[in-house]
Design goal:
The protein is α/β, with parallel strands linked by helices. 49% of the residues lie in helices and 13% in strands. It folds into 2 domains: 172 residues, 3-Layer(aba) Sandwich (D-Maltodextrin-Binding Protein, domain 2); 211 residues, Periplasmic binding protein-like II (D-Maltodextrin-Binding Protein, domain 2). It is globular, with a radius of gyration of 25 Å. Bound molecules: alpha-D-glucopyranose.
Length: 430
């Protein structure tokens, strides 16, 4: 009897021991088997990069990842997410969320301070961490950042006798006109001077806030809650942009998002483009018709007395409050957000890391020399009024992008547009 108990106990000890050893060899043996549904980019090289990284994490941990495809348009993505959030849906565990949605997402997010140590959080740009912290909750961790930049064709600037990219929007318009006329005469009837994102969505909010700010017209609603959009500088900025449509920019630019603008640009059919950093790696791909023929610089100023302005963008990782696998989802977020992964992504996709240390990394700079100027651009980048409007941000942005799009399409005057936006802003700030 006694020896039987002994052997039982010995077996139990052995069994427990091997489990312990197995858990050391195969990490996460206890928590393995979760399927993380991750709402993220799925298309193009960006989607392929995310898929590969998720697969690597799955392999390492014994979990699975299913990517829930988000629309490429930011505003459409928010609509999709809001359906999950309204339903408190456990069907999505982790989300890739925009820098402007922190107030909207906050009630649906797990506080990531639970999973990211202080020094891990401190390694990110403090400005983004502050942006992503709502009432003390770390709603999401910074994944990649973004800033609007000007792409220009170095070969064409040289061909038409320009030594430098334009410093003001007025210079840009003059250069774009001359190059467009010349290229059309030379047998390229579809050639455009300047492409940008004019679509009635978050895309044009970013473009238009850059124009307005560059002319000294503020940021719609200032951090002190003053609604400033109805001012002569903002009106001048919108009128200037309107004057491009159908002259140096195609009439169809009012329906362009980022990818539509990039397609025209990358086919070699535009002299200038406003876009985000992701378009760099794609344009420099050896198969791209414009590889080696373009460069990136800061967006122009609004006139001689204007300011350079870049809209601050970027995407972040959030774990859903309604997820049944929060620990595993947070572990995936941490894996995707590691310095190694961010570095690889900067090299392959020219996406801006959220770890300042990577801006002096020699491998990153070897591929993207222009990143060395981006720390400064990011420091001065203008935030959309999402902190001050919080959960109501989409209301002010929608009012703004609809009105701006109408101005560009010729359906409303700039004077009336800013009045309409002001009304919405004042209602929200009451
Ligand atoms: C980019 C930016 C994002 C912005 C969006 C608008 O993805 O990173 O912040 O909202 O463009 O189209």
């Amino acid at each position: 009897m006694r020896s039987q108990t002994h052997s039982l106990r010995r077996n139990a000890v052995r069994w427990f021991g091997s489990l312990l050893i197995a858990s050391l060899i195969v990490p996460n043996v206890f928590g393995a088997g979760a399927t993380i549904r991750f709402a993220a980019d799925s298309s193009g090289t960006g989607g392929a990069f995310i898929k590969k990284a998720c697969d690597a994490w799955a392999q390492k941990t014994g979990n699975k990842v299913e990517i829930i495809s988000r629309p490429t348009d930011a505003s459409a993505t928010l609509q999709q997410y809001q359906q999950y959030w309204a339903a408190k849906s456990p069907d999505v565990d982790a989300y890739q969320i925009d820098v402007i949605w922190q107030g909207i997402a906050a009630p649906h997010a797990v506080d990531l301070k639970k999973y990211f140590k202080d020094d891990e959080v401190k390694a990110f740009f403090p400005r983004i961490v502050a942006n992503n912290t709502v009432n003390g909750k770390l709603v999401s961790v910074p994944w990649f950042t973004d800033a609007g930049v000007l792409y220009y064709r170095t070969d064409l600037l040289e061909k038409y006798g320009y030594k430098e990219p334009p410093k003001t929007w007025e210079e840009l318009a003059a250069m774009a006109k001359k190059i467009q006329e010349g290229e059309r005469k030379a047998g390229k009837p579809d050639f455009q001077g300047f492409v940008f994102e004019g679509k009635a969505s978050e895309s044009v909010t970013c473009n238009a806030i850059e124009w307005v700010y560059s002319y000294g017209g503020g940021v719609i609603i200032e951090p002190d809650k003053k609604v400033t959009i109805n001012n002569p500088h903002a009106i001048k900025a919108l009128q200037t942009a309107k004057s491009w449509v159908g002259t140096i920019s195609p009439a169809g630019v009012v329906t362009y998002g980022e990818e539509e603008a990039r397609n025209v640009w990358q086919a070699g059919n535009a002299a200038f483009m406003r876009n985000w950093p992701y378009a760099y790696a794609l344009g420099q791909d050896p198969k791209s018709p414009i590889a080696g023929k373009f460069d990136v610089t800061v967006l122009p100023k609004g006139g001689e007395n204007g300011k350079n302005s870049a809209c601050l963008g970027g995407w972040n990782l959030m774990v859903s409050n309604y997820s049944k696998a929060q620990d595993a989802a947070a572990d995936l977020a941490k894996y995707l957000d590691s310095s190694d992964s961010q570095k690889q992504r900067a090299i392959e996709l020219s996406l801006l890391p959220t770890l300042p240390a990577l801006y002096s990394d020699s491998d990153v700079l070897a591929k993207n020399a222009w990143f060395k100027n981006m720390l400064d651009v990011l420091k001065n980048a203008i935030a959309r009024p999402s902190t001050v409007t919080g959960a109501d941000y989409n209301q002010i942005s929608t009012a703004f992008f609809q009105s701006v799009n109408k101005v560009l399409s010729g359906g409303e005057s700039a004077e009336n547009a800013v009045k309409d936006v002001e009304k919405v802003g004042k209602r929200l700030m009451r």
